[in-house]
Amino acid sequence: MSSLRQIDPEISRIIELERKRQQETINLIASENYASRAVLEANGSFLTDKYAEGYPHHRYYGGCENVDEIETLAIERAKKLFCAEHANVQPHAGAQANMASYFALLEYGDTAMGMSLAHGGHMTHGDKITLSGKSYRFISYGVSKETERIDYQEVEKLALEYKPKLIVAGASAYPRIIDFERFRQIADMVGAKLLVDMAHIAGLVAVGLHPTPVPYSDVVTSTTHKTLRGPRSAFVLCRKELAQIIDSAVFPEMQGGPFVHAIAAKAVAFHEALQPSFFEYQRKTLDNAQVLASELQRMGLRLVSGGTDNHLVLVDITAIGVTGKDAQEALGRVGIVINRNAIPFDTRSRWLASGIRLGTPAITSRGFGEAEMKHIAELIVRVISHIGDNAIESQAKEEVSHWCRRFPIPGIDD
Ligand code: DSN
User: Fold this and answer.
1) Which fold has domain 282-406?
2) Could you state, in order of their start, the residue ranges of all structural domains in the chain?
3) Could you tell me the fold of the domain covering 39-273?
4) Does residue 51 carry a catalytic annotation?
5) How far apart are CA 143 and CA 163, in angstroms?
6) Contacts of 186 (CB under 8 A, 6+ apart)
7) Out of 232, 283, 325, 382, which one is annotated catalytic?
8) What is the pLDDT of residues 318-374, one digit of tens each?
9) Of the four, 3, 188, 367, 382, which is 20 to 30 A from 303 by CA?
10) Burial of 370 (0-12, 13-18, 19+ CB in 10 A)
11) Nearest CA, atom 2, ligand 1
């Protein structure tokens, strides 16, 4: 049998570089995580070779008896984990899960509402540069200028004015609990359906550390690789009466053959999330976010909305006098990987941005705790306050290497 190194030394070399990059950097990207070796094993298996268009026991191909079992297990585990009536585990990614749900619930040109990307929403919730924004008339809601939290009164006012057929709740840079019950009430006032995209918080929801959207929503979508710590993929949950239209919107309307290897990896991730240790992991993720938030505040940085209830903090770095882009690059040079992010009512372009988004799911998987969080907060402030100071940057790089050597990465080093 030939190994990757023998067959394709170029790709093999680059993958090794990526392993080293992951081992030697502190990952604070709020939407990333480290999947377990078991998840990676299923995802990298020869299941990748199998075509299985259709659903368990209703396939268009022969030889699906084993993948039927795998997909059925993934479905049952997803339903159990989130107390849902129906699960579709075929979406390749969050964008497909969302688009399929729109196909199921809307006609082209219909009015819908979603959170503005500029205020922390996700681009597939109606941003004009995406298919969602081109296919439907999305009205954006945002956060209040004073509290920087979702302005539910504005959501209600816009809903009454525009009478959307669908309201989308969920965010990618919002550090606060989302009140799904309130969204349901607003949706009911205008006869709208409610879709919650819980991609960022799915792991927290799974263990009850963020209120679940499932009882309040018609449809819930999610990716599986963020707080949920699974493979890079997605799923949809819905009420029984919507099962058929959701299933046919995912396949054949949105996608062709499912990625059976990814479905197996999702089944493994759901299994892991059903274990008691997953609660502990999510608890630590939240604790780490709290320490990071309070340390950054103690050192004078302003946090959007004044803090966090979840796994991420959105930091306004205007006072330091650097852009988010500059901060991202300087932190990158010392081995701290983050993304720049617009803050609500940002006066800079999204490319430059006035904020940085920091998340704790990945470093918590690695075992970082309170002491490390305090040190990381101090390192971040030190580096972004002295951008271009080589001595400060080399010292910070040393400190990052020290922590990285001490904390192995699940899935890579175990
Ligand atoms: N791009 C992801 C994030 O970083 O939040 C959401 O899909």
Assistant:
1) Aspartate Aminotransferase, domain 1 (3.90.1150)
2) 39-273, 282-406
3) Aspartate Aminotransferase; domain 2 (3.40.640)
4) yes
5) 20
6) 152, 155, 156, 159, 167, 192
7) 232
8) 999 999 999 999 999 999 999 999 999 999 999 999 999 999 999 999 999 999 999
9) 367
10) middle
11) 31
